[in-house]
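Now for one record:
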Amino acid sequence: MTTRTIALVSAGLGQPSSTRLLADRLAEATVADLADRGIRAEVVPFELRDVAHDITNAMLTGFPTGDLRGMLETVTGADGVIAVTPIFTTSYSGLFKSFVDIIDKDALTDVPVLVGATGGTPRHSLATEHSIRPVFTYLRADVVTTAVFAATEDWAGQDDVNPLPSRIRRAGAELAAKIASREPRGGARDEFAAVPSFAQMLGG
C-alpha cells in the first residue's frame, strides 16, 4: 500500500497555538477518512515560526536554504496540503503570505489544498474566502470547497447550528476524497535542484 503524504503548514505564532490545534484536527479528520477508504497517510507538520528568518532571507535572495528548502520540497511534493493561518486585521498573517510568496507559481498546480484560519471573533470568518482561498486559486491548487474558520468561542462548542467538529470532519472528508481520486505524487520534489550554486556560477 502506497502511503500518501499530507503537508501540514501552520502559521501560528504562539506555543501552544490554536492555529496549530486547528491544523492538527483537520489532519486527523483527513487521515481518518482516508483510512476508511483503505488508504494510509503520513502527516508532515511544519511551523512557519520555526523558519521565519529563513523565509525573510529567501524573499531577499530568491533562494531558500536549510530547513526551509526541505520544507518547500515536502510541501510541493505532497499529495495534499493543509494550510492554516491566524487572522490579523481581517486577513492572513504576514508570515503566512511571505511563505506562500516563495512557493514557485507552478509547484502546487492541481494539488489538493484545505485552508483554515483562526481568530478571536466570528466576524472574521469570511477571511478564508476573500483572502486565503484566492491565494491558492492563483497558484492553481485544487482547494476543497469547505474552508474552516475557528473563533475563540468555537473551541467551547458554542455554535450549536454549525459546530466546529462537524466543519472539521466535512473539510477533512473533502480533502481525503480529492487525495484518493489521484495517483500518489511520488514524494518531495526539489524545485531548486537545477539552480547552480554560487561556486558553479563563479566557475569554481
Remarks:
- The CA atoms of residues 128 and 134 lie 9 Å apart.
- Residues 197-201 have pLDDT under 50 and may be disordered.
- The longest strand covers residues 80-88.
